[in-house]
Design a protein that fits this description.
With 212 residues, this protein is mainly α. Among the domains are: 63 residues; 64 residues, no CATH class. It contains 11 helices and no strands. It is rod-shaped, with a radius of gyration of 82 Å. InterPro entries: SAP_dom_sf (IPR036361), SAP_domain_ribonucleoprotein (IPR052240).
Length: 212
């Protein structure tokens, strides 16, 4: 009621009189605004006339407000879920290189054969080459050198005989004996010739460039 009373106070006196006239309520000739408001509030017919003439704004707003447009085709779409980035896959391990052949099949070291022939005596080799050079048959010693040396030390006579024998053999091998014999013969011939004859021979040899 307080709301209607406040709204009635906002109206003019003539508006209040018209409401009472529509409600068939008698209005005195001389009256004031408060008396007119009291008469309207006291008469239900006058209130209906007021509501008919001045409908409430709330009702008008509800009736005049357009309905909200609803899109019935739109479905409720859940918010997109962001996927967490997957961790990068670990790189594949590099293949191990094959083991070298030396590890897989170790080669056995060849042991030096003990059956190999022993090297020849260097002195004997020299003798063979010398004999081949001069076309002489090689006479190999019958006893080892060590035994021969010990024997020579114990018997000096035998050593002298063997040394003289070696010198003789070597002289015969290289033809030294014949040369010495010629030299000795020439010396003996020169001694038998007269000195004057020797001087003549010398001059003759110098003339022809012959050495005497």
């Amino acid at each position: 009621m307080s709301d209607i009373s406040a709204k009635l106070k906002a109206l003019k006196v003539n508006d209040l009189k018209q409401i009472l006239q529509k409600a068939s309520v008698s209005v005195p000739a001389k009256t004031n605004k408060a008396d007119l408001i009291a008469r309207i509030l006291a008469s239900p017919t006058a209130l209906d006339a007021y509501n008919a003439q001045y409908p409430s704004e709330t009702a008008n707003d509800d009736l005049l407000a357009p309905p909200e447009e609803v899109d019935w085709n739109v479905e409720d779409v859940p918010p997109a879920q962001t996927k967490e980035p997957e961790p990068p896959a670990s790189p594949p391990k590099p293949a191990e290189p094959p083991a070298p052949a030396s590890r897989q099949n170790p080669v056995e070291k060849e042991e030096p054969s003990t059956s190999s022939t022993a090297p020849e005596d260097p002195e004997l080799e020299k003798r063979k080459k010398r004999a081949e050079r001069f076309g002489i048959a090689l006479v190999e010693p019958k006893q080892p050198l060590q035994k021969k040396t010990s024997r020579n030390k114990s018997d000096p006579k035998t050593t002298l005989n063997e040394d003289s024998e070696k010198l003789k053999t070597r002289a015969e091998r290289f033809g030294i004996v014949g040369a010495n014999a010629d030299v000795n013969k020439r010396k003996r011939t020169e001694e038998a010739v007269d000195p004057e004859e020797q001087e003549k021979r010398r001059k003759r040899a110098e003339r022809f460039g012959i050495k005497t």
